[in-house]
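Q: Is it fine to ask for two folds in a single conversation?
A: Yes, each is treated on its own. Send the first.
Q: Here.
A: Result:
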Amino acid sequence: MKNNWVAASPVTINWAVTNRCNFKCRHCYSRADTSRELDLETVYSLINKISGAKVFSVNFGGGEPLLRNDIFEIALFASKLGLVVSMNSNGFLIDRDVAQRLKQAGFQKVGISIDSPKQEVHDEFRGVEGSHRKAIAALMHLREAGIETSISSVICRININDIEGLIGQAVSSGAGNINFHNFKCSGLGFTNKDDLDLSPEEWKKFYISAAGHKNRVKNLHISLEDPIIAALGHKNGGSLVKGSVCGKLSLNIKSNGDITPCGFIPVVIGNLCTDGLMDIWNTSPVLEKMRNKAPKGKCLKCSHYADCLGGCTARALALTGDINNPDPHCWENEP
C-alpha cells in the first residue's frame, strides 16, 4: 500500500563533490570513502542533467567542498541554469574574500557546522584547533557578503546539555537558522556510536526541550528534522512528506557520480554519469521500498506510525540491517 507522497522529481540534490577534508570529525560518514573526484567538465554535464530533470536546488557538501578550487565555477554554472545553490562547510577556509566569491558564484545559503558553544569542545570533536573561532568568523563574513547563513549541529553526547548555549550562539552570530541534526550511525558515526549516541529516553527528553525552545525563541528558525518527533505529536509541518524525506524529496550524489538515497545510506542505486536521473527516480527498486515501508516490531502497534513511518530509514538500516525495522532512537513502546 502506498503510504506517502513523492515529488514528481527530486526537489533537492545533496552532492558530495569531494571526500577530501581538512577536519577529523569523530562522526564523519565520508572519510573512508575513496571514490574518485569528477573533473569539472563532467560535473558540468551532470548539472545539465539535474537542471533538465527540473530539480529545484543543489546543496554542495563533502568532505569540505571548498577544498575543490573549482567550487566557485561549479556553483556559478548551476546558478546560471536557475538552480538554487547552497553549501555545507566547516567554515575554516571562509574569510572575507572567499565569502564575497561565494556570493558572486551564486550561493544563496551556506550552512556552517558548529557542535558546541564551547570552543574547546567543538575543536576536540572536529579534530582541529581553532575550528570554532574560524566557524564563528565565517558566519560574520558570509552575513556581510549578503549570504543567508545557518548553523548545523549534530546532537550527541558532547552537546546534549548545551542546547540553550547553541541557540544563544546562533542568535548572537546572526544566523537565520539552526539545524539540530539527529545523530546518524554511518561511517565513524557507527564506530563511535557507543561514546556519542544517546539512548531513546535521552532523545525523547532532547526533543521535548528543543520543541519548547522552537516555540519560544524569536528571530531564529530551529529545525528538527527527525521523523520520530511525530511521537510527541509534532507533524513536522516543514516537510511535504511523512517519515524520512530521502528518496521522496531528495537524492544524494557521491564524488564519483554514484547516486544513493541519502548520504547516510550507502546503497548505490545508479550513477549520474551513465544513468538518467529521472529513470532512477521513477524505477529504482530501492527507492520503491523506501517509499512504501512496512511496519515491523513495535511499529505494528504504534499509533504514530502513519506520521513517522518508522523514523529514520538510515539509522534502521545501519543498526538493524532492515529499513522496515523501528528506528533505534525511538522511545515509544519500549519494554
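Q: Second one now.
A: Result:
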Amino acid sequence: MSSRSSSVIPGFGLTLGYTLVYLSLLVLIPLGALFLKTTELTWDQFIAIISAPRVLAALKLSFGTAFVAAVLNGVIGTLLAWVLVRYTFPGRKVIEAMIDLPFALPTAVAGIALTALYAPNGLVGQWATAMGFKIAYSPLGITLALTFVTLPFVVRTLQPVLADIPREVEEAAACLGARPLQVARHVLLPALLPVWLTGFALAFARGVGEYGSVIFIAGNMPMKTEILPLLIMVKLDQYDYAGATAIGVLMLVVSFILLLLINLLQRRISHP
C-alpha cells in the first residue's frame, strides 16, 4: 500500500518538474551567476571590498532603516488592518485604495513626491528646518520613504487572518471577565503573531532592496545617506562589475540569514 497520499488532481511529478524549472530559471540560475561572478576575485579582494568603510556604512544604513520601517509598519499596519476588518464607515473603500497605492505607484514618483514634501523648502520640511532638524537627505527621510513603500505588505498580510477570527471568540472572553488587553494578549496575539512576522519579513525584505523611492530623498552622501543598492549602481557605472557583485553577494547573504531567522521564529511560534 502506497504511503503517499493521493490528490484529487493528478500530476504531482509534472507539476513539481515545472515548478523546479520555473524557480531555477527565475531564481537559482541568476543567483548562481552572481556567486560565480565573484569567483573572479580572490578571498582577500572580496573581504577588502565588503569590509570597506563606505560599504559597511551603506550596509548599516540600508538594513537599519529597513528594520525600523518594518517595525513602524508592523504597528501602524496592524491598526489599519484592524480598523478595515472590524469597522464599517464612510470612506472605507477610499482608504483601501490608498493602502494599495504604493503597489501601483512607480517608486521614482513616490521618491519625488516625498522629497518635494520633506525637503527643507517643502510643505513639511520647512517646519522641520525651523525646529532645527531635517527630514529629507537624512536617515529619517529614508525611513519615511521605506515606510510608505512597504505599508501594504503588512496590512494585506494581516487582513485575511483578522477576518477569519470570529468576533464571538472575543465576546466570549469578555463575558468570562477578560479585560481588553487580556483579550488582545491571549486571544488575538497567538493567532496574529505568526502572520505578523510574515508581513514584517516581507516589508523588511522590500525595504532592504528599495531603490527608486530612496535615492531622491536620501541625498546619496557617502558614509551618511548612501544605501547599498545605490553603491552597487556606482560600482556598475565605474565598470567595476566584480566589486558590484561582491556587494550584491554580501547583501544577499545577510538578507537570507535574517529572513531565515525570522522564518524559524515564525515556525517555532506556530508549532511550539
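Q: Anything structural to flag on that second result?
A: Two points. The chain has a mean pLDDT of 86. Residues 53-86 form the longest helix (34 residues).
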